[in-house]
């Protein structure tokens, strides 16, 4: 039971299980893993796919012959294992050129280079069968307001996204672009900090239908926001194109913890939401093993992410089928026909009737039984129901 299988659509980034454990204070603690080796290991564990930044596969400065050899080995591993590459993304944060932004650098040379890198990553992804292109504006932000860049950054970012979408159409690549918000880190403040701000930006693009969200558990949590609500809003807008699952404590550095390691209850309601939403895209784990771990710990981490998801999925199913939960929810949503007839689309008659409405006093004193409902959720989570 709880064995991950490809149909569960679990994916990992080459950069996640391949994370070598560097942090701002300490050096690498693990050796780099070869991409084709990662593919074989992930397939053994039951994953569906592997995602990558351009540079995870083809390090900067690789010669064309070397590049061809790496690609050959990687594609062979994909063929042997059946693993997919559903998503690609350009690394627009490591190169020193990007220290004051990539697509929103004040230097047009840098903006042009970031755009070139994005187009080349789209070419690479198309060759590997990717259909989702993630844009994470990690360096698109600032520590200093004196430049006034906050007034220009949106325009530059929009221009780049419009260019990329037009290129995808021109080449017939069929990408769907998933934009990933984050409040800070590595910049002091990143433009586009939350799901809400990304959704607002999409409406200003030339091809809004090609753009959606790649929300991340850790990122909304860093901002002190409710990730379940953020995902629900993305779903409501028809914009959940991809999702980054991990865990995080609020008000801390970007921790990228194993899924479910910290906020079990929020993870439970997230899985509950995703599984009932009709979302059929990848369940991507954008997390990495703790710096304390060796390679054995890395695979324990990867397996743990998937198992916790599957356990929570089963718990969510049992919770929704629990007769006591159902009874409480029936009561919670019980709707009298009389007020219902006054709601919905506007009409002048309804407006008249609404003005004549008196709220029955019992509507003020009623209890919503949320203590009992929440306790049932806790008991399901604790495994006593
Ligand atoms: C982070 C981000 C990244 C992006 C990845 C894809 O916190 O560092 O989440 O991991 O998801 O770079 O663009
Ligand atoms: Mn992150
Ligand atoms: Mn991170
Ligand atoms: Mn992410």
Bound small molecules, deduplicated: D-gluconic acid, manganese (II) ion
CATH architecture of the largest domain: Alpha-Beta Barrel
Strand order of the largest sheet: 8-6-4-3-2-1-10-9
Give the tally of β-strands: 10
CATH topology of the largest domain: TIM Barrel
Radius of gyration, Cα only, in angstroms?
A: 23 Å
SS-derived structural category: alpha/beta
CATH class of the largest domain: Alpha Beta
Number of domains: 2
The proportion of strand residues reads 5-15%
Q: Summarize the main sheet.
A: 8 strands, parallel
Annotation field: number of helices: 16
Main location: cytoplasm
Subunit structure: Homotetramer.
GO molecular function, one term: magnesium ion binding
Catalytic activity: alpha-D-xylose = alpha-D-xylulofuranose
Structure write-up:
The active site is at 53, 56. Pfam families: AP_endonuc_2 (PF01261). With 385 residues, the protein is an alpha/beta fold. It has 2 domains: 4-316, TIM Barrel, CATH 3.20.20; 321-380, no CATH class. 47% of the residues lie in helices and 8% in strands. The chain contains 16 helices and 10 strands. It has helices at residues 14-17, 35-45, 54-57, 64-81, 108-128, 153-171, 195-202, 217-222, 227-236, 264-277, 295-321, 323-332, 337-340, 348-355, 362-365, 370-381, and strands at residues 10-13, 49-53, 87-89, 132-135, 141-142, 176-179, 189-190, 211-213, 244-245, 283-285. The strands form 2 sheets. An 8-stranded parallel β-sheet has the order 8-6-4-3-2-1-10-9. The protein has a two-stranded antiparallel sheet with strand order 5-7. Helix 10 (264-277) links the parallel strand 9 and strand 10. The longest helix is centred in the last third of the chain and has 27 residues, at 295-321. The relative contact order is 0.10. The mean pLDDT is 98.
């Amino acid at each position: 039971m709880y064995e991950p299988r490809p149909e569960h659509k679990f994916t990992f980034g080459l950069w996640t299980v391949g994370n070598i454990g560097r942090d701002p204070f300490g050096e690498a603690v693990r050796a780099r893993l070869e991409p084709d080796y990662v593919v074989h290991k992930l397939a053994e564990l039951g994953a569906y796919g592997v995602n990558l930044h351009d540079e995870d596969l083809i390090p900067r400065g690789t010669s064309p012959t070397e590049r061809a050899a790496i690609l050959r080995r990687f594609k062979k591993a994909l063929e042997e294992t059946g693993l997919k590459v559903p998503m690609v993304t350009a690394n627009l944060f490591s190169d020193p050129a990007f220290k004051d932004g990539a697509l929103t650098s004040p230097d047009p040379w840098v903006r042009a280079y970031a755009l070139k890198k994005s187009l080349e990553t789209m070419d690479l992804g198309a060759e590997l069968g990717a259909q989702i292109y993630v844009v994470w504006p990690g360096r698109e932000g600032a520590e200093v307001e004196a430049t006034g860049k906050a007034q220009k950054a949106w325009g530059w970012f929009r221009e780049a996204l419009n260019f990329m979408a037009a290129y995808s159409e021109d080449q017939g690549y069929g990408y769907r672009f998933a934009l990933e918000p984050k409040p800070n880190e590595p910049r002091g403040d990143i433009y586009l900090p939350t799901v809400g701000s990304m959704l607002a930006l999409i409406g200003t693009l030339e091809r809004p239908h090609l753009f959606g969200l790649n929300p991340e558990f850790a990122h909304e949590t860093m901002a002190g926001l409710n990730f379940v609500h953020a995902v629900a809003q993305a779903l409501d807008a028809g914009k959940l194109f991809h999702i980054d699952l991990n865990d995080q404590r609020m008000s801390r550095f970007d921790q990228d913890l194993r899924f479910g390691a910290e906020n079990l209850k929020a993870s439970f309601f997230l899985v509950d939401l995703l599984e009932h939403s009709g979302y059929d895209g990848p369940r991507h784990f954008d997390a990495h093993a703790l710096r304390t771990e060796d390679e054995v710990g890395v695979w324990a981490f990867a397996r743990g992410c998937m198992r916790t998801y599957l356990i929570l999925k089963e718990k969510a199913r049992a919770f929704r089928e629990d007769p006591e939960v159902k009874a409480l929810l029936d009561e919670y949503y019980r709707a009298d026909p009389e007020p219902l007839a006054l709601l919905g689309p506007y009409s002048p008659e309804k407006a008249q009737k609404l003005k004549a409405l008196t709220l029955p006093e019992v509507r003020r004193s009623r209890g919503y039984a949320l203590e009992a409902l929440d306790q049932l959720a806790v008991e399901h989570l604790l495994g006593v129901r």
